[in-house]
Amino acid sequence: VNTAHLDYETLADLAEGLLDDELTASAGAHLEHCLECRDRSAELAEVTRLLAEVPAPPIPAELADRIDAALAAEAAATSAVPSLEARRGRRHLRILSAAAAAAVVVGGGAVLTRTAMNSPITSEASKAQSSAPVQERDDRSGAAGGTAASPNSAPDTRSEAVTRQDAIVASGTDYRPDTLGAQVAAELRRHDRATPLRPATITAQRMTGCLHRIAADRRPLLVDMAGFEGRPATIIALPGGGADRLDVWVVGPSCSADTNDVIQHTVVPAEP
Amino acid sequence: MAFVSGRRTDVVPDKELLTRHVQGDPHAFAELVQRHRDRMWAVALRTIGDPEEAADALQDAFLSAFRAAGRFRGDSAVTTWLHRIVVNACLDRLRRKTLRPAVPMGDDAALDLAAATTAARSANPASADPTAAHEVSLDISAALRQLPYEQRAALILVDMMGYPVDEAARVLDVPAGTIKSRCARGRARLAPLLGHLRNRRSATHVEPAEGGGGSPR
Fold first, then answer.
1. Which of chain B's residues have a Cβ under 8 Å away from the Cβ of A261?
2. Interface predicted TM-score of the whole assembly (ipTM), two decimals
3. Gyration radius of chain B over CA positions
4. Model's pTM, two decimal places?
């Protein structure tokens, strides 16, 4: 004989089959003759129905755009070092004058041109990039939290490898064969003064493959995804080739780990 | 051209897209995001409640997924994996915001207090959408915010998104029984909070046109 009413919790457990046999039996017996508890039980079912009926809001268009831009920036940021300016700093000027440098010009693709031309996207991208360190901190604390840490834990080895590469920028410069050296030097000086770099939208992996192919073990001083004689191209400046000289490569959009696509290769004075 | 691969019109499976992303296809991840972002947004918004916070959490989550794609093992569905990252991003955010002092996890009272604080802070009195459906949605999200996060997340996945218990268990990385009991406890808490909605609904149903002047509309 069950006189005690069943509370919501017991009823909810009952519905999920979480009560042991004895409790299940006694609750069932009570429900048979208790209208009040049957009502409460119906209320619980109603909760599920109410929740199911809430319409799912579509993602706001601005947020969708923002996420696209952030992901594009992330693709670039895995190539371009987060604290780019800090790392470049004076060091490069010293390397530049002391050693020789080489510059490579690689042709960028449609994606890259869009970044260079389209300032709204670029500004979104840099905003997203500037918040990157915070996100990284978030990721770590998430991993420490324990629950399903795998997606967020452990440093990303892929980006680590790429981060060793130097800054990739998209200056929007249209490089010319006759002024290549001066333009590269000007671009290097500009970054040395810690000009905010505009992150380039390009697949990091592709660019990395190209850089490894062209630069081998040398660290690029400049990778500018810009233009060459009006066509999309990436300019890569490497140290080497003798004192006070830049090894400059101009490569086209197809440059990857497997393809050269070199438009021009030249050695220019580091400080014209 | 090099970028053609991402513009295929046939439907590429999620796992294939993720593999392509890892291999350097610049369009693969964007495609994946496009496919699932509405669903992920719904989960994030419902879990966090506040649209701005939810937007930040979702962006963080997609960035995490972008970076972690190489570590996706393939033993679960890509959507499960994405859901897990999104839900974790949301829960991390909620916990960081409200549980700054060292409150032991699993202390329901503390969690309740935290959840209620969040609810109070992000309650939005400015919304004046007159439709009853919208009011119901608002009431439900306000009620959800009074639940401990774990119960809320389970109910969002199972009752709101309609996922099977097993799928929710994989997303939240807990046993199915835990999902069931979190859902049960969540419903038990919500039932008295949502009672007025039930009454209102039945009222509007019983009096279809302009019945009693008391029916809210």
1. none
2. 0.74
3. 20
4. 0.53
